[in-house]
Amino acid sequence: MNKICAFLLCSLIFALNFLKAQDSTETPQNLKSLLQNVAQNPLLQAKITEKESLEEEKGALYGEYLPKVALGYSYNLLQNPDIFYPKRLEGWFLEAQWTLFDGFKREGKFQMVKNKIQAKEYEQQDTKEQLQLKIIQEYFNALSLQSRLNALNNQQKELQESIAKYQKFYDAGLAALDALEAIKSQSYQNSYAIESANVALKAHLEQISLLSGIETKTLSERSKLEEISTERRGQPRGDLQSHLYALKAQENLKSQYTYLPTILLNNRYTRYNYYERNIPILPFAIPINEPDYQNIFGLTIQLTLFDTLATLRARESARLSALASHFEYNYHKDAQERELIIAKESLLSAKDKIQWATSSLKSASIAYSYAKEKFNAQLIDYTQYLNALTTLLNAQSFYDASRFEYEIKKAEFLYKNGESLENFIKD
């Protein structure tokens, strides 16, 4: 019995260790899958739903100008009927109406809703690109923090080894206490820096999870963007195109204010039932014709002759609103050109920074290796050794940050250039 219990306990411990190992070896998330899953983001879903709403509005608008047919029932009760009208009259009717012409308002409404749909489509596209750009920024910022965290952990390992070694030297009376305490102090500072970096890294990962809809714990360092030429010429960004079609929709609003006539057609067919005629008693019969049905065809032409210039003023207001939108569009168009110039310069600067960071890391590595050897041989003091170690850490962080910043600047340039970010990802 004891052997069975021991076997079950060992199996349980093995299973728990196996599950823990599975969690610790979680597959790193690559950038392409994160960008592809952005379609599930609620912000993008909202833009898609808004476009679908406009599509339904377009269908309703077309239906509004088709002939309308109504079936109804009417009932009339007269309080004081005379010989010509019955006390009660009832019947059902069928009526058709059709707006034949409304001063070209119909055409303006159709064009307006088409432009609104087009504007919403570009807004949807730009929302997707913005979300993907934010994911890329968070992704490489997280990798930069992850690299700094690795460098801090390596430095902490070096410091722990030095503390253990100098503790023995101090116990043997071969090293001063200030050297040992200085290394310990640096180790405590490193512990705080590691904790802060972990919190910041967690914040980036949570933001990536929010934007992409994929729970993200670790990131693949293999993901990056293709090399691009700063001379490539893209197309207007989605937000600029959205402004353009919103401007066109605003210009279409003028068509709703016109003095042209409106022409309506209508036809009403009615079946009658008569009850309780108030006919006096006479020595001779009075023939009364009671038609079973009536059909009325109507043509209405309505023309506004005077409205205290209300229509004219409304049209002028719409024109000025469109002019304001035009000025705003020109501003955004000029802003995109200038933002593209800045993005281009930033990309070139980021590329140059990698070369400087590489040289800096190489020099810091050489300086640290010599400083470590001299410190172990007690040829230099702990201050010089810690300075060399800190310089190496900063150089390593600068190098990694430069590499990842270059990827971010590529993404920002592509976005400003109106490119699809997803097409330039390499995993």
Count of individual helical segments: 8
Morphology call: elongated
- Tell me how many strands there are: 7
Which range does the strand content fall in? 5-15%
Using only C-alpha atoms, the radius of gyration works out to 40 Å
Can you tell me the residue ranges where pLDDT is under 50 for at least 5 consecutive residues?
1-25
Distance between the termini: 54 Å
List the helices and strands in order: HHHEEHHEHEEEHHE
Mean pLDDT across all residues, rounded? 87
| Range of helix content | 55-70%
Largest sheet: 5 strands, antiparallel
Structural class: alpha+beta
Task: Give a written overview of the molecule.
With 427 residues, the chain is of the alpha+beta class. It is 64% helix and 13% strand. It has helices at 2-24, 31-36, 42-64, 105-171, 177-212, 238-252, 310-376, 382-416, and strands at residues 68-77, 86-101, 224-225, 262-271, 273-277, 293-302, 425-426. Strands 1, 2, 4, 5 and 6 form a five-stranded antiparallel sheet that branches. It has a two-stranded antiparallel ribbon with strand order 3-7. Strand 1 and strand 2 (86-101) form a beta hairpin. Helix 7 (310-376) runs antiparallel to helix 8 (382-416). The longest helix is centred in the first third of the chain and has 67 residues, at 105-171. The model is unreliable at 1-25 (pLDDT under 50).
Give the structure's gist in a few sentences:
With 427 residues, the protein is α+β, with helices and mostly antiparallel strands. 64% of the residues lie in helices and 13% in strands. The chain has eight helices and seven strands, in the order αααββααβαβββααβ.
